[in-house]
């Protein structure tokens, strides 16, 4: 019977060989990797379920409706972005495989089509973000451009309570080590000016009473972070990674 699942086949050596006019070329030392996974860690799903946005993960029955309707998977052809599969890997605790998607998982654009379509009421978008957070907090997930943009966006917003778009753009360009060509920069500056959003730096708008409210928000963000880390520790350092 032919082996169709190529990922399970390991070829140690391929050779072209002819002996006494007979072609005996082939793959040598070919063997199959084990299909049995023994290092599954069900504490991952326990942790995700214990989070406010991950509590519906256990309802998933793997029908695949979310993936079939996901704009990234279907419209944009990002086949590796598969919400059903992310949920499956988290449910069974296959951390090694899940970590391969630590960056991809954050490409979700939060359109919530998956949530609308899920027949089991899984809050798919929230669940996969919680899975992403798990991977981020337990280490090993490299910071993606989307992560960096989120960080720049949050810091920018926390400064005055209103987004300073020009400053956000400059910060993000710096983070990515990019410089926009002068012509494009001028064009964008003009568009920002026309839309009244070129007030930047000290001239940028500010939300009234922001100092007090901003401090409360900062504390809340820190508290959320502490809670997440504490719950990961309580889950026993799942996957052997320290939070
Ligand atoms: S649509 Fe809902 S039940 Fe079906 S795979 Fe997606 S999350 Fe699971
Ligand atoms: S919210 Fe995310 S996972 Fe759901 S359909 Fe939209 S892009 Fe896909």
Descriptive account of the structure:
- With 243 residues, the chain is mainly alpha-helical.
- Among the domains are: 43-142, no CATH class; 145-207, no CATH class.
- Helix content is 46%, strand content 7%.
- The protein contains ten helices and four strands.
- The chain has helices at residues 43-50, 65-69, 83-92, 95-98, 113-117, 124-137, 145-160, 165-175, 182-194, 210-234; strands at 9-15, 18-19, 22-23, 26-32.
- The chain has a two-stranded antiparallel ribbon with strand order 1-4. It has a two-stranded antiparallel ribbon with strand order 2-3.
- Helix 3 (83-92) crosses helix 6 and helix 7 (145-160) runs antiparallel to helix 8 (165-175).
- The radius of gyration is 24 Å and the shape is extended.
- The chain starts with 8 loop residues before the first strand and ends in a 9-residue tail after the last helix.
- It binds iron/sulfur cluster (SF4) (2 copies).
- One iron/sulfur cluster binds next to helix 5 and helix 6.
- One iron/sulfur cluster (SF4) binds at residues 70-72, 83, 108-114, 124-125, 128.
């Amino acid at each position: 019977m032919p082996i169709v699942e190529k990922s399970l086949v390991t070829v140690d050596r391929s050779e072209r060989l002819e002996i006494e006019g007979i072609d005996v070329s082939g793959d040598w030392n070919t063997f199959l990797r084990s299909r049995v996974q023994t290092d599954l860690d069900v504490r991952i799903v326990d942790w995700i379920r214990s989070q406010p946005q991950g509590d519906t993960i256990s309802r998933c029955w793997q029908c695949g409706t979310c993936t079939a309707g996901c704009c990234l998977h279907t419209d944009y052809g990002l086949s590796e972005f598969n919400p059903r599969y992310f949920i499956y890997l988290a449910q069974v605790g296959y951390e090694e495989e899940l970590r391969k998607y630590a960056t991809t998982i954050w490409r979700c654009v939060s359109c919530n089509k998956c949530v609308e379509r899920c027949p089991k009421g899984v809050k798919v978008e929230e669940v996969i973000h919680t899975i992403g957070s798990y991977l981020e907090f337990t280490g090993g997930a490299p910071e993606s451009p989307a992560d960096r943009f989120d960080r720049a966006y949050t810091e920018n917003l926390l400064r005055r309570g209103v987004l300073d778009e020009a400053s956000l753009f400059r910060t993000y360009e710096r983070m990515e080590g990019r410089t926009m060509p002068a012509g494009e920069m001028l064009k964008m500056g003009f568009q920002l000016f026309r839309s009244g959003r070129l007030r930047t730096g000290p001239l940028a708008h500010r939300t009234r009473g922001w100092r007090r409210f901003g401090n409360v928000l900062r504390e809340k963000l820190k508290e959320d972070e502490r809670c997440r880390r504490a719950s990961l520790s309580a889950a026993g350092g799942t996957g052997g990674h320290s939070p």
